[in-house]
Amino acid sequence: MDVWLDRMSDDDGTGERRAARRDRAVRAAVEQGLLGPGTPVLALLDVTGIRESAAALRAAFTAVTAPGTPVLHAFAVKAAPLVPVVRLLRDEGIGAEVASPGELALARAAGVPAERTVLDSPAKTPQELREALALGIAVNADNPQELDRIDGLLRSAPTASPLGLRVNPQVGGGSIEALSTATATSKFGVALRDEGAREWVVRAYRDRPWLTRLHVHTGSQGIAPDRMAEGVAAVHALAEEINQRCGRRQVDTVDIGGGLPVNFASEATAPTYGQYARALREAVPGLFDGRYGLVTEFGRSLLAKHGTVVARVEYTKSAGGRPVAVTHAGVQVATRTVYAPEAWPLRIAAYDGAGRPKEGPPVVQDVAGPACFAGDLLATGRALPRLEQGDYAAALDTGAYYFAHHYAYNSLARPGVFGFTADDAGGVRFAVVRQPQSLEEIVTEAGGAHVDALTSPTPTR
Length: 461
Ligand SMILES: *Cc1c(COP(=O)(O)O)cnc(C)c1O
What we know:
Blueprint: H1 2-7, H2 14-31, E1 41-46, H3 47-64, E2 71-76, H4 83-91, E3 95-98, H5 101-109, E4 117-119, H6 126-135, E5 138-141, H7 144-156, E6 163-168, E7 190-191, H8 197-207, E8 211-215, H9 225-246, E9 253-255, H10 273-283, E10 293-296, H11 300-303, E11 307-319, E12 322-327, H12 335-339, E13 348-351, E14 362-368, E15 377-385, E16 392-395, E17 416-422, E18 428-434, H13 439-445
Parallel strand pairs: 1-17, 2-3, 2-10, 3-4, 4-5, 5-6, 6-7, 6-8, 8-9, 9-10, 12-14
Antiparallel strand pairs: 1-11, 11-12, 11-16, 13-16, 14-15, 17-18
Helix pairs in contact: 3-10, 8-9, 9-10
This protein binds pyridoxal-5'-phosphate.
């Protein structure tokens, strides 16, 4: 990964402009009263940045594919399950990859058409499969039992759904075990290198002329792009073998998954989509010559760098000689970082009470969250201008898999999410993406309508 960071950072000023937009937005959020003593935490999304990433993704694959190659970029909805975000990406020509009935509902609410939606979950129920086939959504089966189910459903009703099979090339994992999907024993897909598996796959395709896609997703954050390219190469080779042994061009589309890692260490976008697409074409030229359509499923790399959690410093104190800033952003918005700080370090930016970047000599300090357990720390031993009461701490690069994935510990409210853009006068305009959760909603979601459920003489349902 470090090699890729060195080889592959964008130094065209994209990162600096993004940081400048973020600084302006934090300032404006304070000035416009979105942030303050009464609303001490919120999440910001940089609409311009998201559009730029979407455009970069489209351009990257246009540049490496033969003219006319069908390419569907399907956003992995799990990375930012927010309807306006999926809608914004739809507006940028990006479809949706969904992995649960909830995610499918979000994609449909955002208006993503069926032909731009891909269903991938490892545990699809018969009901989910029936619905997907009725809608004409692409489905990647995960395993032989699921293929059997689809066989049965196809006997009862025809479908417009493109159908594929997920395979695990077993090329190995990355630096984060929990996100490595191509290990020997991963729970995902058909394990291609297991004894007899390859033969089984070829036969499965020979017996099912409607099986026209192959799917691989080698992993997410922590997988080196070379390893991802290895996974894609393995699946391309399998597609060629299936087509040759079936004597027809049966596999017409390869779904290469998502997983482009994000650089959380600095402002740079690294690697870029352009670099990854070129590396893929170099590693697997046959996939780009126009004989195969492509589907991609990027999530984190489209959103991460465009999201920021900003939290007010409620108190500062010192413990064992180390300064601690107690803020309103912790485990509820940065769950992975709090529970696995080694794997998921976040950059923290300091702002003063007016929302201006904070100046001052760096002081090693802890940035803590509001939850009632000792490990609720956004950052430990971090050198930052000394945070003071009423300042703001911002957790950067949190646009994917962070604030959109609220963790309800301590019944801490889901913060509001606001998209921001520059307005004509050079100011900042905010749009509500998700309202902050109210106390009424917290009570309702905690069974408030069933207050007597456990105490009334005859429990009712
Ligand atoms: C999570 C996931 C993705 C997206 O991964 P990112 O690392 O967010 O790009 C794509 N495809 C599948 C099948 C996934 O499970």
